[in-house]
Design goal:
The complex is a heterodimer of chains A (235) and B (314).
Chain A (H helix, E strand, L loop, with lengths): L1 E12 L2 E12 L3 E5 L6 H9 L6 E6 L2 E2 L5 H6 L2 E4 L11 H9 L7 H13 L14 H14 L4 E5 L7 H14 L4 E5 L3 H7 L2 E6 L2 E6 L1 H6 L1 H8 L3
Parallel strand pairs in A: 3-8, 3-9, 6-7, 7-8
Antiparallel strand pairs in A: 1-2, 1-4, 4-5, 9-10
Helix pairs in contact in A: 3-4, 3-5, 4-5
Chain B lengths: L2 H19 L5 H26 L8 H18 L3 H23 L4 H21 L1 H4 L5 E2 L6 E2 L2 E2 L3 H22 L3 H11 L1 H6 L4 H27 L1 E2 L7 H13 L6 H19 L3 H15 L4 H8 L6
Antiparallel strand pairs in B: 1-4, 2-3
Helix pairs in contact in B: 1-7, 2-7, 2-10, 2-11, 2-12, 3-4, 3-5, 3-10, 4-10, 7-10, 8-10, 11-12, 12-13
The chains are: A alpha/beta (235), B mainly alpha (314).
The structure holds adenosine-5'-triphosphate and magnesium ion.
């Protein structure tokens, strides 16, 4: 069964059709990569899913329930988490407070710090608990953002270009983190790094000019001629 | 000592000092400090919204006056005893802030400032309009006989000092606790990055509304207390000046610090008091000092202390 699906989902920015009539189904437990050239509408599409922006038309349902009318925070509380493309952490608060804020939505009391420790361990920031988030390097802020997503223990984790700005070793660690996570969490991953996409995704959806251009396994997408021209560059 | 302990010792320490001061201060400063403590409670209330939630209101005089008139009219018009009158003041503040929050929180930033300013102005005009009951600008006095709370005469300086101390103490401990609760942490998160807080699943509007009501009710408590302790209720307390004061006090003392509102209120009160003793151009001196402070301590006095010496100060 689909955990998340959309029907005829569209977003219009003053005449610019950023997302156009998208039907999308994401089965529970899948790792789905969403790829496409710059400006294809990927961020806009996932923003419509989690309610950051309202659609011009179309519907979104989550876990069999129409959530099109729900405000963002209610959708998040149903079990979605979203990490921003443009790093958005609480820059003046400590790393541990950043993650605590995410964790406190589902646990209280001493368990909060347990969760904080756990997820910071997973992303490799455990030794930076007391640092101010804004003092972290750009890459580490990205990791913090992922840690906040993990702390929410969502059913659907939406990651908007999580590996942007990460070092190679961190990207390798990220890949295995995602694979581990997939046993419990459905993942929707916007990604430009092709090695991450090819090695983690079960299915890839290609977006171009706001429309679904192709959908299939990594091998199928790699072989798809249309995708080659639109995105991967011919040849 | 752990950080929480040190924090507690510092804040309780201030309360102990304030309590002890009444035995040593000369009458003049004794009276001043009682006044400062009640006004500082007002600043504490303001700080919850401005300092911790990041919402700049220019209309808090509405809440201060709601408390003051809620209390004063109960006594003056209905002959109520001080305690029910105080409760009426608190309720008035809670209701007015709930209504204002509900309307004004539909706006943000500058629009929020303007909307709060306008509502407070409407409140001021309402006070003047119902001059038959409120006696307008002239205001009304609460007689000594009407200020006896449970056999305690609140016009007596010692009792008054103690009552002011209680009002301030409650507001201070409340904020200190607030910033340690999950709810208070969410307010800070909203101040820091509203969109992020929302996308963690927090209902931003509900939290802001609760902050307005909490802030407004504490401000109303201060207003009601001020009227009762000093025996006068007047329209000037509903004027725009009384909306600007708490902003100044909090900015001077340090927005988003628990001690800042008191330090700022104390500082400003004595700055004006001392400079007006020196020269008739006292506003000039006060102005220059304020400018220097904003240049060299932009985070406020307690804010600078936190930046330089004590990072964990709440
Ligand atoms: N708030 C907005 N107002 C107007 N236009 C917007 C807005 N947000 C996005 N757009 C436009 O919509 C289109 C899709 O943008 P979007 O950010 O969704 O692309 P993307 O696929 O995420 O790109 P990238 O890979 O660069 O992140 C772009 O042309 C963009 O300029
Ligand atoms: Mg994008």
């Amino acid at each position: 069964m689909s955990l998340l699906s959309t029907r005829g989902l569209s977003k219009n920015f003053d005449g610019l059709q950023a997302v156009s009539n998208v039907d999308f189904d994401l089965p529970e437990g899948q790792i789905r990569a969403l790829i496409g050239p710059n400006g294809a509408g990927k961020t806009t599409f996932v923003s419509l899913l989690c309610g950051r922006i309202t659609p011009s038309s179309g519907s979104v349902s989550f876990d069999g329930r129409d959530i099109s009318k729900l405000p963002a925070h209610k959708r998040i509380n149903l079990g979605m988490a979203y990490t921003f493309q443009i790093t958005s952490v609480f820059a003046n608060l400590s790393v541990s407070e950043n993650v605590s804020l995410a964790a406190r939505k589902r646990v209280r009391g001493p368990s909060v710090m347990t969760v904080v420790q756990q997820v910071l361990d997973k992303v490799g920031l455990a030794d930076r608990l007391d640092q101010i988030a804004g003092d972290l390097s750009y890459g580490h802020q990205r990791l913090l953002e992922i840690a906040m997503g993990l702390a929410q223990a969502p059913r659907l984790l939406i990651l908007d270009e999580p590996t942007q700005g990460l070092a190679d070793s961190e990207i390798t660690a990220f890949k295995s983190l995602i694979r581990d996570l997939s046993s419990t969490t459905t993942i929707l991953l916007i990604e430009h790094n092709m090695s991450v996409v090819m090695e983690t995704a079960d299915i890839i959806t290609v977006l171009n000019f706001g429309e679904v251009l192709a959908e299939g396994s990594p091998a199928e997408i790699h072989a798809n001629a249309e995708v080659q021209t639109a995105y991967l560059g011919t040849g | 000592m752990s950080n929480t302990k040190k924090t507690l010792v510092l804040h309780l320490g201030l309360l102990v000092v304030l309590f002890a001061l009444q035995f040593v201060l000369p009458a003049y400063h004794h009276g001043n400090l009682a006044r400062i403590m009640v006004l500082a409670a007002y600043a504490v209330g303001y700080n919850i919204l401005f300092g911790y939630t990041g919402l700049l209101s220019l209309g808090h005089a509405l809440f201060f006056a709601a408390g003051m008139y809620g209390m004063g009219l109960m006594i003056n018009q209905f002959g109520a005893a001080p305690f029910p009158a105080l409760i009426a003041g608190l309720l008035a503040g809670a209701l007015v802030s709930l209504a204002l929050g509900f309307l004004a929180l539909r706006t943000e930033g500058v629009a929020f400032m303007i909307v709060t300013l306008m509502f407070a102005q409407a409140g001021y005009l309402t006070v003047l309009y119902f001059g038959t009951y409120t006696r307008g600008d002239e205001g009304f006095v609460i007689q000594q006989a009407e200020r006896v709370l449970w056999c305690i005469d609140l016009s007596d300086p010692t009792n008054r000092y103690f009552a002011a101390f209680l009002i301030f103490g409650v507001s201070l401990l409340l904020t200190l606790r607030l910033v340690q609760t999950p709810f208070g942490r969410v307010l800070i998160a909203i101040r820091e990055n509203e969109e992020r807080a929302r996308m963690l699943g927090y209902d931003v509007f509900a939290h802001k509304l609760a902050a307005v009501v909490l802030s407004g009710t504490i401000s109303a408590m201060a207003g009601a207390g001020y009227g009762l302790l000093f025996g006068y209720v007047g329209a000037s307390f509903a004027s725009v000046q009384y909306s600007i004061f708490p902003l100044l006090w909090v900015l001077l003392g340090g927005a988003g610090t628990v001690l800042g509102p008191f330090v700022g209120t104390l500082f400003m009160f004595y700055l004006i008091d001392l400079s007006s003793g020196l020269t008739s151009a006292y506003m000039l001196i006060a102005g220059v000092v304020l400018v220097l402070l904003t240049l060299f301590a932009p985070q406020g006095l307690v804010g600078e202390l936190r930046n330089r010496l004590w990072k964990e100060l709440p």
